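Example 3.2
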Amino acid sequence: MATYDTLGATYSRTRQPDPRIAAQIHGAVGDAADVINVGAGSGSYEPPQTVLAVEPSGVMISQRPAGAAPAVRAVAEHLPLGDNAADVVMALLTVHHWADLRAGIEELRRVARRRIVVLTWDQDIFRERFWLVRDYLPEAAAFDDARAVPPGRLVDLLGGGRQEPVPVPHDCIDGFGAAYWRRPHAYLDPHVRASISMLAQTGDQALEAGLARLADDLSAGRWHTRYADLLGHETTDVGYRLIVSDL
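Structure, written as tokens:
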């Protein structure tokens, strides 16, 4: 299976932090004196208090912007840090990539002094509400079925916490899975798909028929007729959730 050393090569083209989502994440971080970002990728959504990023992919680390917090190559299951290393530890859209979820969560709990912030999604809601995987690319949904972590399970592993819905703006800057829910032509762009792990790792061959149907429906105007109700919405909730757990 492809890793972010291959998937992440062009990541920075389409995956820039969206300021509205950033505000929600930074609000959850609160007044922490220091923050560690685990599974940090290229550094999206790191608040100013970030003191260290942990990321296994050298390709992703190479795309971190100038002035970002220092990064170390390591995995969540074996954090090269002492106990109680930072007020807040965050893990954003990463837990589904971990080889051992329980071990990774135990490491977050060991390293955090006050709070853990996790951005994830509810696969049941995602499957039901997001037109792309529901109506065109069920193969991508099936791929995520095997790796998605129910938010309730994360809360249990964290020892408690709250869930906050993360609405996706219609003009979301960060090109993650459902970012283009009101801009369907974007999913026909291979550069966009390359930075969405559920599509990139499912592969274009498996998605070919569904993408062809989407292209045909867009060309014929059927998509805009079928999903006309979406066009008046500024945001949508397709299951992305921010989990905040105080220790």
